[in-house]
Structure to design on (473 residues):
């Protein structure tokens, strides 16, 4: 800690045995960087405390280690007015137990911190203590503006003049940092990655073997290495739900670019067209992405009478007892398949049973083309809350016959009408150059009776009680 304070290191951490982690940050840096706090606290459940260190300047011998970086600062004792002139610095210490995976992520994040101006961190020191059967190894990594630790500082750190060390310079790996999208919707279907990362993902899917993207500007070429995780078709990312065959999606589609931030939930999709390939693979078009997680997919398949585990159609027999046993088995299969990945709560079991009842009710209805408001309400009920609210919409109970009747209109193409003798007599009462306008559709007719006959059916009969509008030609 003394070395970090004297050298003004912005961020440092020490890990012992890959399990116990201490992070040391100057309190001023910790309090002034909201992004740093959110990043560290989001990754680790750490215990946080603040410690004040005081400098060794003042009275006493300042030669030796006390006059160098590793001994210049020490924890503050009870201060008196006589020592009020001694300089002090405050540090924030975070302690936690971590796994190897969490430590690896922290190392990568430290590299990003040292190169990202948003963190307000210019220097990082990482120390890892590894113990083997023969020896104990200390690996100290300096990032950003930090320089190599001097030999005399290493002697002070380990209190041993015979300490041996080997230093080497390693270039940081190529990295591209994407900022969160500012125009993201409030309630997206999927918590997706930044748009720039998705764009690179689509470009990476075009290369089946080479794991890089080449950008050309005239004679200049820039190659950008792409991680394997951004590869789509090359990584065989999409699989068939039954058979585990590879599914190739279109490059310029939502499925090829999606990068969900929540990797715990699986993604499912349905398609309109398929082209069967060798080895059980297929190419698909017209893909619709479903909400993440197995529960939504399970309810959707059960509503159509498909077992979500086996992807086979449900068979209903005439024997009620046998039929009940088969339905109970289907419910248990659906629950076990959903819980396997998502950890479905017991409070959601009713959704699975209601989805199965919905399918049985649709089988009993048959193929009658009629509106079923109660079925619509029950369908929305067991999907409500799975991936946000789902409720019935305005006009959901309007029958298909009424909708078609409201949309059906009489053709407005005028036909030549031969007036009858009665119409001719009525027509003679008006000027020969007068036409009559229908107040509903504004069509013109040569005689008033012809216009009235038209008005009986025009606009669903709403203008039948009105009079035609005469218009002189």
């Amino acid at each position: 800690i003394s070395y970090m304070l004297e050298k003004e290191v912005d961020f440092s951490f020490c890990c012992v045995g890959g399990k116990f982690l201490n992070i040391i940050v100057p309190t001023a840096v910790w309090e002034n960087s909201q992004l740093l706090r959110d990043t560290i606290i989001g990754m680790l459940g750490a215990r946080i405390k603040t410690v004040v260190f005081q400098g060794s300047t003042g009275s006493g011998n300042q030669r030796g280690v006390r006059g160098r970086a590793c001994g210049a600062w020490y924890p503050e004792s009870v201060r008196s007015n006589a020592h009020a002139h001694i300089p002090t610095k405050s540090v924030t210490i975070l302690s936690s137990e971590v796994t190897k995976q969490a430590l690896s992520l922290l190392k990568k994040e430290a590299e990003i911190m040292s190169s990202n101006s948003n963190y307000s961190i210019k220097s990082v020191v990482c120390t890892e203590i590894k113990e083997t059967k023969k020896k104990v190894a200390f690996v100290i990594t300096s990032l950003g503006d930090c320089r190599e630790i001097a030999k005399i500082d290493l002697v002070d750190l380990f209190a041993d003049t015979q300490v041996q060390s080997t230093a080497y310079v390693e270039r940081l790996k190529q990295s591209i940092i994407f900022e969160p999208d500012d125009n993201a919707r409030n309630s997206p279907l999927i918590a997706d990655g930044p748009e720039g990362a998705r764009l690179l993902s689509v470009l990476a899917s075009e290369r089946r073997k080479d794991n890089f993207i080449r950008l050309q500007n005239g004679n200049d070429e820039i190659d950008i290495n792409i991680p394997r995780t951004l590869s789509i078709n090359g990584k065989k990312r999409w699989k068939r739900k039954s058979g585990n065959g590879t599914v190739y999606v279109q490059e310029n589609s939502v499925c090829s670019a999606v990068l969900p931030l929540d990797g715990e939930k699986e993604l499912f999709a349905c398609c309109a067209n398929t082209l069967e390939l060798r080895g059980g693979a297929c190419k698909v078009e017209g893909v619709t992405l479903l909400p993440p997680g197995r529960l939504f997919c399970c309810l959707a398949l059960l509503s159509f009478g498909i077992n979500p585990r086996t992807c086979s159609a449900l068979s209903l027999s005439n024997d009620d007892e046998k039929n009940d046993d088969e339905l109970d088995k289907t419910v248990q299969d659906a629950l076990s398949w959903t819980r396997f990945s998502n950890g479905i709560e017991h409070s959601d079991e009713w959704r699975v049973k209601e989805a199965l009842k919905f399918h049985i009710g649709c089988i009993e209805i048959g193929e009658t083309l009629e509106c079923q408001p109660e079925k619509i309400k029950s369908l929305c009920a067991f999907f409500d809350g799975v991936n946000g609210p789902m409720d019935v919409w305005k006009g959901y109970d309007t029958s298909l016959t009424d909708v078609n009747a409201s949309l059906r209109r009489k053709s407005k193409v005028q036909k030549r009408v031969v007036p009858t003798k009665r119409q001719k007599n009525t027509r003679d009462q008006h000027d020969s150059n007068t036409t009559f306008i229908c107040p509903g559709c504004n069509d013109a007719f040569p005689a008033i009776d012809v216009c009235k006959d038209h008005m009986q059916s025009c606009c669903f009969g709403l203008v039948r009680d009105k009079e035609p509008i005469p218009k002189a030609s």
In short: The chain has a mean pLDDT of 77. The two ends are 100 Å apart (CA to CA).
